[in-house]
Amino acid sequence: MRIRMIIAMAGAAGLFLTGTANAYPIKDPVLTKNAFYTSGKLAQTRCAEPPIKNNDRTLARRYMAALTNCLNTAWGAHFKAAGLPFGKPRLKFVNKVPTGYCGLNVDPKEKSQVYYCRESRTMVVQIGQNWLTSADDLWLLHVTGLLYGAHLAGLTGIEKAFDEAPYANRNEMNEQIRRSSLQTDCLGGVFTRSVWSSFGRGAKDWNELLRTLRDSGDVKGQARTAGTGANRAAWTKLGYATGDPASCNTWTATPARVA
Questions:
Q1: Among 1-5, 8-12, 19-23, 139-143, whose mean pLDDT is lowest?
Q2: Looking at residue 19, what is its pLDDT?
Q3: Do residues 115 and 101 lie in contact, with contact meaning Cβ atoms separated by under 8 Å?
Q4: Do 149 and 7 contact (CB within 8 A), yes or no?
Q5: What's the pTM value of the predicted model, to 2 decimals?
Q6: pLDDT, tens only, 162-204
């Protein structure tokens, strides 16, 4: 398998998934007209937001574990109501992601990174010092939500369709990787909306998260597989504004929106 996406995270971390890509415009109905897009808005969910503090890996892990439980509740009820098959992912914390995990070329230099492996439905999380020195709960909230978005893509067949589709050249491949990556950002925004009020969060926090996303994205001189920081923020904002997976159909978006 090929690396499906590498999302540049705060502190030079990354999200790595597996798969291939296909040429624009996308015609596969599994990607463009998936039943997931007609499943309706994600209902509001009440969850307690755990505390985190600087230099405390245990609390950071507990935070992501609690959010994963909340994601299971929210999306599990959503899939049941829509008549879609659902299964919970496995969440695994590691001090260091094993080399070759899930057939990937794991970068041993990364301090913090998250991976999703479709074959085992596992979300693997490595939280390093760069995510702990100035611990950011908003960042962990978004990372957990988008990582779960990769799991949703697996459940709905989007991941498999993407993995099996052809592409003509590296530019086409990277564009489709960005479509997949930005879709998970958008789904992260959908989930964030569903729990925002129960977390007692406001406009100041939301604007802070958007600023962080605008500062992320593809790094000049490296493969363009995450999307620009502006597009990452835009898709996350769209998912939050609608609360609806239908708004996260990046596969029919113009190339400019997934640049």
A1: 8-12
A2: 42
A3: yes
A4: no
A5: 0.91
A6: 888 778 898 899 999 999 999 999 999 999 999 999 999 999 9
User: Could you report the per-residue pLDDT of 85-106, keeping only the tens digit for each?
Assistant: 999 999 999 999 988 888 876 8
Number of CB atoms found within 10 A of residue 79's CB: 18
Please choose, from the candidates 243, 232, 179, 184, the residue with its C-alpha nearest in 3D space to the C-alpha of residue 28.
179
Residue 207 neighbours by CB under 8 Å, 6+ apart: none
Q: What is the distance between the alpha carbons of residues 252 and 142, in angstroms, rounded to a whole number?
A: 24
Q: Residue 109 contacts by C-beta under 8 Å, 6 or more apart in sequence?
A: none
From residue 213, alpha-carbon distances to 95, 128, 171, 186, 189 in Å are 25, 19, 23, 12, 12
Look at the alpha carbons of 92, 90, 63, 139 in this order and tell me if their dihedral is positive or negative. positive
What is residue 60's predicted lDDT score, i.e. its pLDDT?
98
Would the pLDDT of 152 be above 60?
yes
Report, as an integer, the average pLDDT of 12-27.
Answer: 51
